Amino acid sequence: MKKKLFSSVTLLSLFAALLSGCGTAKTSSQESHQTSEPTAVQETKKPDAVLPLNVDVMDDFTSSLVRFIEACGYENQNYIISPASFRAALALAAAGADSDTKEELLSAMGFSDMEEMNRWYSSITASEDRFNLWLKNAIDAFEENREYYGDSAKAPDGAFSLENSVWRNTKSSGELSEAYKAYVKEHYNAVAENVSEDRITDAVNSWINENTNGLISKISNDLSASDLVLANTIYLRTAWMTEFDEYLTEEGAFTACDGRTVKKEFMYQRGEFAFYEDDETTLVCLPMQGGINALFILGDPENAMEKLRSASVETVDVTLPKFETETSLSGDELIRFCKARGAELAFLPEADFSGMSEEMKLYITDIIQKARIKTDEGGIEAAAATVVLMTEGAMPIEEEPVIKEFRADHPFRFILFTDSETPEPLFLGQIAE
Hints:
Layout: E1 10-11, H1 29-32, H2 60-74, E2 79-81, H3 83-94, H4 99-109, H5 114-125, H6 127-144, E3 159-169, H7 178-188, E4 191-195, H8 200-211, E5 228-239, E6 250-255, E7 261-277, E8 281-288, E9 292-299, H9 304-309, E10 312-321, E11 324-329, H10 333-340, E12 363-375, E13 379-391, E14 403-407, E15 412-418, E16 425-431
Parallel strand pairs: 3-4, 10-14
Antiparallel strand pairs: 1-15, 2-16, 3-5, 5-13, 6-7, 7-8, 7-10, 8-9, 9-15, 11-12, 12-13, 15-16
């Protein structure tokens, strides 16, 4: 039985290096203000208004990925991607590569050697104990004091899981090496399975569906041509520290990139939050359960990380649309990204993956990622699944405060980061229409 990795204390930080996208238009709280505000006001508790920690500049891998994906046609569209899921799936491939193939993959991923790659992965899973402890303590406290809660009270809930697996098609010409299977089990908790050609598609899709709580039901309609499938999933579910009251949710107009207005349901609350604004940018950071923060940005995302360091706790009227979006990168986008960062050999028949198997002459034929996010008054649920397909065959493609305002009624960005020593982006995206 696989081990669930409930991770924690995630920082939803921001796009320091997003250079394009329709969210770059100049914005201020005055410009985004509309007269149709909710008439009631929800106050939040001041102890929850804390500034986010560990706000570092986004690494080159992630910022390059964002620029590349937007250049692939997503500049003016809703999207969500998971750099962490993509990297983790590539890590399973790099673990079985050798010689120049390994060096190119590591470099494309932004690592100098295997030790650095393994430390990166450990920095994400290190959050597991913190989140697990928080969730356990919160549930225990709820049960111990159940008599003091109302009949409608619900126990604390949340999840942040990271899973890896390796699937060998039994039609392949050889076996995976015991050394490779032991390595990915030790460093990535990945179990290698042998599955027949007629079962591998259902087996992988079922594994992904289970590990994303049904948010991603399948990754592909047909994996039977692949001799090896390397898979990763990330699943996150957490609640706002102070939930948005449903009775304050109102329908309103959202102005898309092309100037069209579309109807959306807008959530509203007033509280003490980390807030920053200048002539180009407005940022607000909302605390979430389990030590997670959600950071949203309006306007120019350039240098957003630096600006976040200058944020102060203010009383803010926050208006956010309920949104749900999903993205499927199932063409050759992620392969082209790797090649643009210097990884060529891994995608050619002469690739060296002898660390996986001396018998099978494998190379990467496709990389697919699907990601999805849902937000509502209660919180956020997000998931991503990434598979690296390999084959031996042919390659496919207080006082009265000054009230600030953050009203996301036009394109905005979001990103979910781990609260590790070096924050790792798990999910990021844009709501453009």
